[in-house]
Amino acid sequence: MARTPTLTFDRGTLILHPPPRGKGWMDYATWDDRVEKFRIPAVKYRALVETLQAENTNFLDEAKAFFSLELTSSMQMEPYPHQTEALGAWKLAGRQGVVVLPTAAGKTYLAQMAMEVTPRTTLIVVPTLDLMHQWYAHLVAAFPDAEVGLLGGGSRDKTPILVATYDSAAINAETLGNQYALIIFDECHHLPTDFNRVIAEYAIAPYRLGLSATPERSDGKHADLNILIGPEVYRKRAEELAGKALAEHEVVQIKVKLSQHERQKYNQLIQIRNDFLQQAKISLGSIQGWQKFVQMSARSQSGRRAMLAHREAKEIALGTDGKLRILANLLAKHYPERVLIFTADNATVYRISSEFLIPAITHQTPVKERHEILTKFREGEYKTLIASHVLNEGVDVPAASVAIILSGTGSAREYIQRLGRVLRKGKDNNKQAILYEVVAEDTAEEGTSARRRGIKNNEPQRRREREEKKEKRGNLQVVYGSNPQKSYRAAEQLEFNYFTENKKAQNKDELEE
């Protein structure tokens, strides 16, 4: 009598033995001479099970260790329309995909909604310890009867709902891989790295939700999210949510002229750099050009002088005294509102902190001191706070209404995250937020500013306006799949089953809506 094919989980992969009669499963399998069995990537679990079911193949599924949960939320809020739309789009896409929403648009509550309609063991992956503890506090409040644990920062819990840092989840990917049916990747642009991607690749989770304000990566690896999580299913921009889920906001750019001495020195330094670039036939208009400049700067004295000149010129533009005068004026104008100040480097943070007596947070700030500073800022004891990059991501500061960018990178992600720090309404439905961007005029900083705001230099204004209208067209941006008849109502009726032992048991434990 022929044995029933059995699917088992083995350290981040699947083993299917003995081979089934059908042919569809062969698209996912590779023969492993070491064990003399067929091995399948764990990430292909859902596709494999659906293929076996479609071919009416009886098999034993011993790979899964995830299970149903009783999730009764004690923290219910009326969702914003965009949250309801995003949840519907994700369900319609088979509960696999990426939702792109601006910072402060309620991604955490959207994840809670996804957990409620997909009541299974769940892993939430976050980039920082601060975010891990924020998620933990939210989930404990939302699901008081559920077991919620932590993985990272010294914690090694094994619970049905687990919040882990990317680092810890990657290290433990082989053991976590079959424990969770739903994985939520917060700030999912962190996933497609050589180290982190194993979290998704070693997991059999049939349901996956990616959350990010800016999933795009400069290395192009955001395309891998289609395989690791699923396609982008929904996107909204901050401008579309202003006055609704987010505070009304204004972005003001202030250009500062260099002093005569600064201008003279800046031009001399840029000339030294440009002479070398021209001689070496290097263009800084691309990543490859910059990489070549770095390589050449290590090979010759002239290259090193050019690189040092480039850095000194950049320091002049970033830290011009004119910016500090503008800062003093803005702080006086907005007192006693709570203000966040951002710079590109720690040296400027400490300089401003010392000269203006403003609390500062950098990556060097001890955890307890950082927590104390943020607490006093939220409570209003501190009116102003300055930081470099550490407040870009994952810090909840709804009390702030003014942000001042004195310097930054060309990253659109950084810009959107910094803007998001002041867009959260909190308890003030009439909040008016403002972001000041202070830029040194006629320096490379203007190009950096244009890149982070998505504006191409010398691009005609009309073309930019056409692109903006095109992006705003329609209230929903949803991937519906191949069937044009599908709708949100259809998404409500979809049922998935990954608890199959044989054909007769296919209706067992169907996913609750």
Automatic annotation (TrEMBL):
Location of the Helicase ATP-binding domain: 88-233
Molecular function as annotated in GO: ATP binding; DNA binding; helicase activity; hydrolase activity
Bias (Basic and acidic residues): 459-474
Primary enzyme class: isomerase
Record-linked SMART domains: DEXDc, HELICc
Ranges where the Helicase C-terminal domain occurs: 323-477
Catalytic activity: Couples ATP hydrolysis with the unwinding of duplex DNA by translocating in the 3'-5' direction; ATP + H2O = ADP + phosphate + H(+)
Region (Disordered): 446-484
Entry annotated with the keyword ATP-binding: yes
One Pfam family matching this protein: XPB_DRD
Keywords on record: ATP-binding, Helicase, Hydrolase, Isomerase, Nucleotide-binding
EC number: 5.6.2.4
Family affiliation: Belongs to the helicase family. RAD25/XPB subfamily.
Record protein name field: DNA 3'-5' helicase
Source organism per UniProt: Chlorogloeopsis fritschii PCC 6912
